[in-house]
Amino acid sequence: MTNILFFTSPIGLGHASRDVAIASKLNANLTFVSGEGAARMIAEYGFSVNDLYRHKGFEVDSSGQLKHAFKWIMDYYSYYKRCKEIAHELIDTNTMVIADEDFAATSIAQEKKVPNIVITDILQTRFTRGMLTSTIEKKMNKAMKEMIDKSTLVIIPSYGDDHDNFAYVGPIVREVNADREKLREQFGFNRKTILVTIGGTDAGLFLVKKAIKAYTRIKNRIDADMVITSGPSMNIGFEGIRNFGYVKNLHEMVYASDLLISLAGRSTANEASVYGTPSILIPIKDHFEQEENAKRYGYTFNDINRLDELIIEKLGSSRESIMTSNGAERAAKLISNLIK
User: Fold this and answer.
1) Are 256 and 275 in contact (CB under 8 A)?
2) What is the pLDDT of residues 87-128, one digit of tens each?
3) pTM reported for the whole predicted model
4) Burial level of 81, CB count in 10 A (0-12/13-18/19+)?
5) Which range (43-52, 99-108, 289-298) has the least confidence?
6) Structurally, how many domains does the chain consist of?
7) Which DSSP category does 124 fall into?
8) For 218-272, how does the pLDDT look when each residue is reduced to its tens digit (9 = 90+)?
9) What pLDDT sits at residue 246?
10) Residues 76 and 138 occupy one common structural domain
């Protein structure tokens, strides 16, 4: 039986959430490799996981601006080299590697000539500006593209036309296993509920503070409560606002709520879209991936300055019907076809 290692990027919780959705559809023995909050989530879903990765998060100032992008690129490169050392110790010739934006593992898998599957939202990064810094990032992008092109299979969790080794499977989200009204009762959602969530790091603290200020200004005009999930790294209190801290089933909380306010991460946005929950998606300023995700839903960073009107507008809109999404099932089937 092939030894399957599933390497999950620990940057945020979005990678972990879609990877457990895929793994739950696989009839195979596998072991995850990740770190920190992502490893915790994976373990809570009952999977074996090696908690080995440690990374430095983005630095975001109090206004929501991404800071020191080039330094983050350099820190990421150091992190990448450490991850390659870890992957080298774990991967052998009897291994199949699945890597969700963990290109260190992909690199080692290709060096050892074993089957390797890439799961990714992005095909290049655009964090830096300036001739020197952008030149370095371009070289990193070139190396990433070469790895992607050489991969056995590339799974893209969005819609598109398959070609070469690319398979577009649609949104990959975890399944909701309970009725919405039962979930609302379980979470204590007695009135319309605004959920503010910022993923697995404290990079979105600026959005939490802005959302609370907006809610405070308009709460007498709306019949709604606000709740927060602040992730594993930011279990702090906010006066008059329930903070659930870290929850492993955030997708069910998204489904149960009446409005989502979130950073513009792909996985949370996909969950809101699939479950029919109206959403306000605010990107970190100059975070190219989040800005592109937000644009797909009609938002920009500047919308943070009109949260009052957006909250009132979105609370008055109707829920969409739950969309059928078989992205996890499609991804699992493609992976299963390659397992020996």
Assistant:
1) no
2) 999 999 889 999 999 999 999 999 999 999 999 987 765 555
3) 0.90
4) exposed
5) 289-298
6) 2
7) S
8) 999 999 999 998 765 555 666 778 888 888 899 999 999 999 999 998 889 999 9
9) 85
10) yes
136 and 227 together in one domain: no
Within-domain flag for 320? no
Going by DSSP bridges, is the β-strand pair 279-282/259-263 parallel, antiparallel, or unpaired?
Answer: parallel
Give the closest residue to 125 by CA, choosing from 288, 305, 330, 291.
288
Place of tokens 């992976």: 335
* Spacing of C-alpha 241 from chain mean position: 24
HSE of 333, CA atoms in CB hemisphere, 13 A: 8
In a domain, 197, yes or no: yes
Terminal CA-to-CA distance of the chain, rounded, Å? 7
Same structural domain for residues 331 and 233?
no
Place of tokens 């809570």: 44
Residue 29 lies in domain? 3-172+327-336
Give the mean pLDDT of 66-90: 86
Name the residue type at position 230.
S
Nearest Cα neighbor of 212 from 238, 232, 235, 247 is: 238
CATH of residue 260's domain is: 3.40.50.2000
Same-domain status, 271 and 186 = yes
Instruction: Indicate whether 116 belongs to any domain.
Output: yes
Q: Within a domain: residue 321?
A: no
- Paired with 39 in beta bridges are none
Instruction: Name residue 212's amino acid.
Output: I
